[in-house]
Amino acid sequence: FSFPDCYAAEFGELEVVQENQAGVPLEHLVTCVPGVNIATAQSGIKVVRWIHNKPPPPNTDPWLLRSKSPVGNPQLIQFSREVIDLLKSQPSCVIPISNFIPSYHHHFAKQCRVSDYGYSKLIELLEAVPHVLQILGMGSKRLLTLTHRA
């Protein structure tokens, strides 16, 4: 929550646009910066942090440093493809987390059973595909969007 204030103190005010007006969520934009990550602290608050203190080796794709695809798990690979397809059908590739299950059901004409993938909670399943899905915000107002790489 303090990021805009810290940024303003160092560089000047960030331009803020109203929701649904040609803007990008700040959390999504910050993840474009090489060497920077947004992590969730044990308290549940998201913090901006360095991924590493030294630059990556030459010719290293910065997106590969952030997350790997679920190698060897065909169900998660299929789920990843479905998430991409579903989000591409949404305005600005964004969907509220509360709409994910009904939207998935409507889009694919099948239920999304979290237990079929070996998880007990939806959020755990969504966090299992960080190479395609970014979870923005906190609490009940979380949004799902595609990662920059996807």
Features:
differentiation, oogenesis, 14% strand, MARF1_LOTUS, 150 residues, alpha+beta
Order of helices and strands: HHEEHHEHHEE
Average pLDDT number: 81
How many strands appear in the DSSP assignment?
5
Per DSSP, what share of the residues sits in E-state strands of 2 or more residues? 5-15%
- Structural class estimated from helices and strands: alpha+beta
User: Termini separation (Å)?
Assistant: 26 Å
The shape is: globular
**Low-pLDDT segments, ≥5 res:** 62-68
Strand order within the widest sheet? 3-5-4
Helical residue percent band: 25-40%
| Biggest pleated sheet | 3 strands, antiparallel
Rg over CA atoms, rounded to whole Å, is: 17 Å
User: What is the count of DSSP helices, taking H or I runs of 4+ residues?
Assistant: 6
Give an overview of the whole structure.
One of its GO terms (cellular component) is peroxisome. Its main location: other. It comes from Gulo gulo (Wolverine). This is Meiosis regulator and mRNA stability factor 1. InterPro entries: LOTUS-like, MARF1_LOTUS, OST-HTH/LOTUS_dom. The structure is a single chain. The protein has 150 residues and is of the alpha+beta class. It is 33% helix and 14% strand. The protein has six helices and five strands; from the N terminus they run H-H-E-E-H-H-E-H-H-E-E. It has helices at residues 3-11, 26-30, 62-66, 74-88, 100-108, 122-127, and strands spanning 36-40, 46-50, 94-96, 133-136, 143-146. The strands form two sheets. A three-stranded antiparallel β-sheet has the order 3-5-4, covered by helices on one side. The protein has a two-stranded antiparallel ribbon with strand order 1-2. Strand 4 (133-136) and strand 5 (143-146) form a beta hairpin. It is globular, with a radius of gyration of 17 Å. The two termini are 26 Å apart. The relative contact order is 0.15.
